Amino acid sequence: MDNGKRTVVVTGFGPFGEHAVNASWVAVKELEQLGLGPGVDLHVHEVPVEYQAVSCLVPSLWEQYHPQLVVHVGVSGAATAITLEMCGHNHGYKRPDNCSFCPDTHCCVEGGADCIKSVIDMETVCQRVKASGLGVSVTVSKDAGRYLCDYTYYLSLHLSGGSSAFVHVPPLGKPYSGEQLGHALRAILLEMLEQLGQDQDANHCEHGH
């Protein structure tokens, strides 16, 4: 019965700084209520805003679930649109986390590539979600911020060979509600799964450039 079912893991972050309620986790919980349809096993996890916790948790998610896709969701105080991040970065982690810790080397994976791009074509996902008439603003970015969001994304991309995604959401009410963010995440993830399915059907992937 599980043949053909795809496994998707989605994470959101816990509180940090001025974000006593993190919009990313609210959005992910809304997504969990909506689901991704009968063909998808969806698992959601809250991630602490701590480098060492991320370094343990992200590998464990890949090992536990063997997912087709992992999507990490974070909040950006500067964002007014939902932002699809195209790549993760290995260096520049100098901002302390919730435990006042940051990596001594300011690096995510020693010896890793400077930047890893997702195999998902974020521009196409963005265009298709915009065209769906969902009523939310969606954009793309090449800079996930060199904090826990970028760190988590890079680690996940490194572990998965690029089969990860990162979505930044604005703070709650600026301008979207948790429910609106949840519906937007659902539309985004379904587009990503559609794209991955097409790549598998073609039996090749030519995103590495």
Low-confidence stretches: 203-209
Strand order of the largest sheet: 2-1-3-8-4-7
Shape assignment: globular
Proportion in β-strands: 15-25%
- How many distinct beta strands? 8
What does this structure look like?
By secondary structure, the protein is of the alpha/beta class. The protein has five helices and eight strands; from the N terminus they run βαβαββββαβαβα. It has helices at 23-34, 51-65, 122-131, 148-160, 178-202; strands at residues 6-13, 40-47, 69-75, 82-85, 87-89, 115-117, 138-141, 164-169. The strands form two sheets. The chain has a six-stranded mixed sheet, with helices on both faces. α1 links the parallel β1 and β2 (40-47). α1 (23-34) packs across α5 and α2 (51-65) packs parallel to α4. The longest helix has 25 residues, at 178-202. It starts with 5 loop residues before the first strand and ends in a 7-residue tail after the last helix.
Summarize the structure.
It is built from five helices and eight strands. The protein has helices at 23-34, 51-65, 122-131, 148-160, 178-202; strands spanning 6-13, 40-47, 69-75, 82-85, 87-89, 115-117, 138-141, 164-169.
Attribute tags:
alpha/beta; six-stranded mixed beta sheet; 209 residues; 36% helix; two-stranded antiparallel sheet
Which helices and strands appear, and what pairs or packs with what?
Elements: E1 6-13, H1 23-34, E2 40-47, H2 51-65, E3 69-75, E4 82-85, E5 87-89, E6 115-117, H3 122-131, E7 138-141, H4 148-160, E8 164-169, H5 178-202
Parallel strand pairs: 1-2, 1-3, 3-8, 4-7
Antiparallel strand pairs: 4-8, 5-6
Helix pairs in contact: 1-5, 2-4, 3-5
